Records
---
Amino acid sequence: MEREEIFGRLNEVFCEYFDDDDITVTDETTAADIEDWDSLEHINLLVAIEREFGIKFTMGETSEMKNVGEMVTAISEHLK
Amino acid sequence: MRELDYPFDSEDLLTRKRAIRKAIRKETEGINLPEKRIAVLGGSTTHGIIEMLELFLLNKGIRPVFYESEYNMYWEDVMFDAGGLSGFKPDIIFIHTSTRNIRNTPNVKMSAAEIEEALNAEYGHFEELWNKIREKYGCPIIQNNFEQPFYRLLGNRDVVDVHGLHSFVQRLNSKFYDYARAHENFFINDIAFMAASYGLQKWSDPYYYHMYKYIMCVPAIPEFAYNLSNIIGSIYGKNKKAFALDLDNTLWGGIVGDDGPENIEIGQETPKAQLYSEFQRYIKAHRDIGVLLTVDSKNEEENALAGLKRPDSVLSPDDFSDIKANWDPKDMNLKALAKELNIGEDAFVFVDDNPAERHIVREQVGGAAVPELSVPEHYITEIDRGGYFEVTSLSEDDLKRNEMYKANAERGKLQKSFADYGEYLKSLEMKAHIAPFEDMYMARIAQLTNKSNQFNLTTKRCSQAEIESYAANDNYITLYGALRDRFGDNGVVSVAFGHIDEKDKAVFHIDLWLMSCRVLKRDMEFAMMDKMIAECNSRGIKRIIGYYYPTAKNGMVKDFYDLQGFTKVSESEKGDIVFELVLDEKKEGFSDRGVRNKVIVVE
């Protein structure tokens, strides 16, 4: 799956999860850019993303993701 | 809301929780739901649990307000309260601990005596906490038990050997259960079952604990919260009361009208017949815990009865409180059943293999539970996990309920043979016991305040702890009434209490007055009021004030105080009405109304 396609599907998960259609995620997007995205929400967001792509992040990946770009990289690794 | 009814899609709930929360909050906005203050004291993360719990409780008709302890401060919050918890004034305290919170774990170097000591220390830590809560808050406590550890140091021996953690956890759980059996208002949230049922490996995935300090995997949170909401719902009287059961391909295999009663699948002859028999046994066992069984089936009645009368059928026609087998739409039959049994339409669980029938009942009957059924081999699980009849207390009345409804039917037959209603009432040879709240009935009294909707003047809901506190307070007068007659014992059927005015000791306010609809028109309310007035008089009270607060369901008692001989004082725009009765100790019955009960012997 191309990064662009992953971005598209990821964006939908973000919009649905935060119930906000105005969200656009980019490589540089971090939790600081989205109002409701705090550490407690992060875990549920990850579950929603895992569900969308049918994958399961490892603890290593989860703790190293610094922004959405790295998240997309981790997803594409799982989909290889 | 359909998304929140069991069986729900957990992942969908987690993904769309914001949208669902918005929708359920909107749906329940402006509706007068009872507000309950729930303190969640966690030994691990509780954030996601509270979010899901809110959704399920709103869906059950309870508006929760939460207090959340700081991370892993469940013990300190109670023992060294800095004002947060006591200021919150909890109605319920939920203690969310798990095997991860056990501090005194055994190891193979310890002697049996040392392990025993560790066990007692661990248990003592919790018992101290519960006793403190009981003494300080007196509110119901919900406590997790311990799930099995996800590894076994000693292999299969871990559960046998006292050094094993599995053995330790089981013994600790056992002590928790002993406490739960010995104390009312203390409930175990059985996460050991939840974890086993979900799959222990998945449930206990260490990823979620180490990343976020959740003791269970996040996708299991909705199931966890739902199970917890069932306990809370049950405490506040949200349990269902009856099954409305389809027959063909639900209680037996095949269609009795087409195949003939001799050819339906029930009994022990085929695997399918055995499966339906097991399901019938499961349903029948509900009679014993006080759930009413009814039939709602599209059939000729004769055929329906023929199916149930087969000698190898587990359920027989006598097991049912009412049978509707006809060609009317099922939603109409269900409404008729509700009317005849004098219970709410929303008190039913409708069980039917046909999706179209489930759909129409879901659409037409507000509040009834309509579980999705897949295949007969999963019926039990699909109904059981719905938690519709969560037993938080099993009162004597629950155990006798089916007999009571039978006795009602016999009374109905007798009534037809009397021309004069007064003569009929006398022929019932009724005897009432009316007295201040007593210890053995506290559970039943609290249950009645949460379950009675129709004959209920103020619809005040009370926990058992509150009921006990009124009974112990000298400024309150409390009464319960139990009624027996020649056909049987109705148990506790009426509850009333009120308090003496703080400023004027000669004035008494009636806070709650309710009666079970199964003794309507038996003059029990007059016997109760005669007694209440006598009690007030003996305390030197000169004026009794009664209140009627209208709800969607209590229209039948709008004139209650009128009929009791009270005078209307005022009526607000909302329809709240205030009545009064002036006492005069020189008069018979201590007021102008006199003594009104002439048919019940009060003991």
Note: Chain A touches chain B at residues 13, 16-19, 39-40, 43-44, 47-48, 51, 58-59, 62-63 (CB under 8 Å).
---
Amino acid sequence: MGKMYDYLSQDVRFIEGLNACINCGTCSAICPAAAFYDYDPREIADISQSRDEEEITALLKSDVIWYCGECMSCATRCPRGNKPGLIIIALRSLSQKLGFFTESEKGRQQLAIKRMVGESILETGYCVYAGHINTKDFPEQGPVWDWIIKNPAEVYKRLGGNYNGDGKGLLRKIPEESLKELKAIFDETGASEQFEQIEAASEKKAEELGITFGKGKDCEYFRYVYEGRTTL
Amino acid sequence: MNIEGKRRIWKAYQKEIADDRYYYARSCIRQNFFPGSETAFLRILKEELGKDIHDDPRHTTCTGIAYHCDVIPFETTMTVVARQFSLMSEAGYTNYVPSCITSFGIYTEILETWHHFPEIEAKVREMLWKSTKREFSKPANLAHASDIIYKFRNEIAAKGKYRLINQHTGNPLRVVEHIGCHYSRMFPHKGVGGAEYPYVLAGMIESWGGEVVDYPERRHCCGFGFRQYLVKANRGYSAACSKKKFESMAPFTPDMIITNCPGCPYFLDRWQFVIAEMQGITYGTAGQGIPVFTYEEVAGLVLGYDPWDLGLQTHQVAVEPLLDKLGIPYDPEMKYKAEGGRFIGTPEYPEVLKVC
């Protein structure tokens, strides 16, 4: 048995996600990602059960594991109770733990997600917060969002909200004590360490690619991974 | 036909939904993009149904989006969820009601994991104690907010001022229902109707007078895909999924779409705007889109709430054609006004998609 398979076998998502795959391809037939990308969840299950060290390592460094949308349609349909979506979660987790994620274009996007969603949680207590969303980065929000975000306090108040206010209610400011507890949980359970690993591996890759690395969402490397620029 | 046998089989597709005394966990996405829906949900439960529902300022995100974008470990999400349960216990409640389908999936997955791997639950209890000095009890009942509306759908219909009937023709409105993927795909027995016959929205539609539209891509994902939408470079995935659904449902000429996940109405609303602007394609009548709603918004309309109190002005696809069909009066002048009727400007018009 290879080292990579050993790592994966310690992950409860992998244990729950993989029984014996019969390669029927039902998961690929139902998969929204397979309809869009050159992606085949059947192959993910098959490579994983092969225990082939080289093939699993190649998978961990590839774009392929980042194509899944984690909708879990595969989980409903597999006649053998496999859940390729859960196998993907375990593979992505390991790819980041080993620093392999920066070897692929799609994997490198983890930096953008860490800075957009991960940092939002610690800063606001929400995965997303209206004040951070603009139509430059999310043009599909449309002109109605420009109107909302120009008048957030009034629009949300009109709809029963408490935008950035103390106390209870919609889009309230999460109390400082709750944010402290979140940070303590992130420190205790490995999220803070994972954030540091994502930053460090990304900085190293940026240097290798000759792209300027910096903090925030406006640095060259962030835009490179977030917008998928192939040239700078 | 053996009806008794069918009833017995259908029983297996039902779930237990608590009757009262709920601890409400708000949704990150719904609060930002469909704020009127959560306000309407609380109003319906308290004022129409007389239920006790607790709105706690201390709860936070469940971290579901970060978890499904794979930027945080499972241990982190489980411990944050354990903290939410601790808040529920502290407030004196046992029935947990998340507003978000991703959260509902997260809670379900975690409770199942703890059931099958008690050593993981023990580890989470230890991590929660170390980080916050908190302890928790697991909920006696876990139901998504749409389950609660489903449970009381007939009471809402009885109190309703409007039905999902076209006032001009007298025919039932043709309604597309879209179930969020994480409602029942992973754990079918946790959703009304399971993964094969999800009935949570169809039940509301039937009770409120509408007709459910069946179409080939009815169960296809809206296209959130977490990282597939959040990262700009991947967003074609999201638009393509929604477009696949629109193309599939359009020949059935639906009057409206109802959703139960906070993200789905956003994608089904906004991608219609994008497809119109980029490709000149619209799926409603006269250059308009198919209006998209949350189930709380539809329940509010049935009960006669003002459309602008429900937040229908925050949609990009115009809702007025549907309001006209329902015979619901509305004041166009008040659509974009702040509280007290104060003028705060109006959104610009899209170039292609027709809005009112």
Note: Chain B touches chain A through 94 residues (CB under 8 Å).
---
Amino acid sequence: MVEGVARVVAADGSVAWLEPEPGSSCGGCMSAALCGTKAGGSRQAAKRFPLANDADLHVGERVVVGIEESSLLRASMVAYGLPLAAMLTAAVVASKIFMAGDGAAGLAGLAGLLLGLAAARLCADRLSIRGELTPHFLRRALAGEDCHPHKG
Amino acid sequence: MHDLVLLIVAAALVNNVILARFLGLCSFMGVTTKLDTAVGMGMACTFVITVSAVGDWALQRYLLEPYHLDYLRTVTFILVIAAAVQFTEMVIRKVSPALFQTLGIYLPLITTNCAVLGVCLLLVEGKMGLVDSTIFAFASSIGYSLVMCLFAGLRERIALADVPRLFAGPPIGFITASLLALAFMGFSGMGAN
């Protein structure tokens, strides 16, 4: 189980909205200002996700949420692997089998990338319906707890 | 096809981005404490390196070379990489918000990964066609991901081992990395004939 710490930013009856806390290494990263993963950043706000509020969570509470390793791997394969495989296959087939020039191979690669993205969307919807992309509530975070329990 | 296989083996193993060319060392040490984060970073990097390599190749061939603007290469490539990262983030957010919430954390970090720029600059030296350049970039990034995953697996095991206090943490990480680099030296010369 991949664990992460999130903060409750809104609680509306049976649904709580959580915002993931940035990793502990973000504070020391030279590109922290660029990437916007620091707390309160617009990118963090975009990553807010709903969670069933069975544990009676309140705004400001920190909780530990988790997602299966296999789900993370599957999500990576769908988001990156599928479009990339389609793009490479289309470009290589156009170039090596149909002996197309660079321009035609590039267009074939672009078409493959778009097809791959469409396929990724279908697969992601299927994963989402099965609930594989939704983090699960594990426990309330202890004071000072972060997502790197083995560090130090 | 034989040439393609040789190109893939050379880019992924013989001239590995991390252990032979020493690029992307910041993420190599920083994101490999856990296997799952290494896999996520590796996959994201693979996608961005390959996509930005296509864009960089096109700009180099149709803009920088014909107009003798080679001195703008580094700046142009950095712009393409940043655009590719933004494009990827936007597309993933559009394609599936749930996927974006799960994977989005790694994307902005790739902009500052020197392995991406390094691979794109190596493409220029290679003077290859579009497909060969794309395959080279893809294979290089697969080599990058492979080493990230191997090293993360080793570090997870080391975290459970009884390491002397003096060597605990980064020192034992660097020693492990050097042993891994020695192991990859075994690939040097492969396919030279």
Note: The CA atoms of residues 16 and 136 of chain A lie 12 Å apart.
